[in-house]
Amino acid sequence: MSKSKSKANAQVKRKKSNRKTILCSIFVVFLLCMTGYIVKAKLYNPGASALTGVQQETGFNGNPVLSDDNNDQEDINSNTKDDRSDEEEDNNDQEAAAAQNENTTGPGSNAGQESPVLDGDYSNEKHGWGFKRNDKHVQPEMPASLNTMLSRHGSYWIGSPDAKVVYLTFDEGYENGYTASILDTLKANDVKAAFFVTGHYLDSQPDLVRRMVDEGHIVGNHTDTHPSLPDISNSQIQKELQIVEEKYERITGRNDMKYLRPPMGEFSERTLVFTRELGYHNILWSAAAVDWVPMPGGAQEAYEAVINYTHNGALILMHAVSQDNAEAMDRILKGIKEQGYTFATLDDLVR
After folding, report:
1. Which residues on adjacent β-strands are paired with residue 127?
2. Residues with Cβ < 8 Å from 14, sequence gap 6 or more?
3. For the segment 15-52, what is each residue's pLDDT rounded down to a tens digit?
4. What is the DSSP string of 293-345?
5. What is the CATH number of domain 96-106+119-349?
6. How many CB atoms lie within 10 A of CB 253?
7. Where are the domains of the chain?
8. Which amino acids are annotated catalytic?
9. Each residue of 127-175: pLDDT tens digit?
10. pTM for the complete prediction?
11. Is 255 exposed, middle or buried (0-12, 13-18, 19+ CB in 10 A)?
């Protein structure tokens, strides 16, 4: 009887041990699956770019949008991100490593807060910029409500659908050795562009900033430390912009900054209203590519990423940290002209 009881107890223990092993195995598999899902989501959703927020192939809700021309998925306006991100984000580190600090926020920022920062009577619902590309050389579609909001507050993402005119812009979070070459090519092709700079860029590359101004390009504000504007208060937004303005004036002797590219392409009606009160037009984009990292196809892919998606009024976003962009720049500029487009500046767009 004792033996039988002992044997029964041993069987019970084995069953419990087996059950525990099975449960542990299921838990480990679950963790592996979740880790894989998160990694895949990060890779699939480029979100914003290194200091700009290129949400090229994602919808307004941050969900992936297939680039297949037959994909009828509707773009919806809601919160994204990321980011990245910018990824990923090269938010004003003190070195080129700045490109990887995506979560940097401004002085005394409210990062990690549970509720949005509210200032005034306007909505602080965060909108992440994104669109579905098409290779039909027609303007991307945009929800009417979002288009109306941008227009109402002096913000731009595209030009006229009736004119074969394009606007070229670059984001400058840090220098990777290619801006001088890009400036050489712009000069050789008689094209003027806009460069959106951060505080870090002004600190580290004053000579290049002076050259931009001397050669007739526009220098825009990309904030000091690249925070998501809806996440910080009005006073913090003002400080972010003023620091860049003061650094720019010390370098160039000019105080004419009036164009703002919101970091990561993130904004709310509150931030549009407040930055407009400070004298800025928010500038987004209607054509862009994931170009802040090396492209698998190199310079040829950089060329095709622009040429295949030009359209009337295209406001093109590029990153000057890209060697592929620098190597393809001459072909890009000539190719755009060969398609019958002319280049104009943000001053021509914002009249």
Report:
1. 267
2. none
3. 556 666 666 666 655 565 454 433 333 332 333 333 33
4. S--TTHHHHHHHHHHTT--TT-EEEEETT-HHHHHHHHHHHHHHHHTT-EEE-
5. 3.20.20.370
6. 9
7. 1-44, 96-106+119-349
8. 171, 319
9. 999 888 889 999 999 999 999 999 999 999 999 999 999 999 999 999 9
10. 0.71
11. exposed
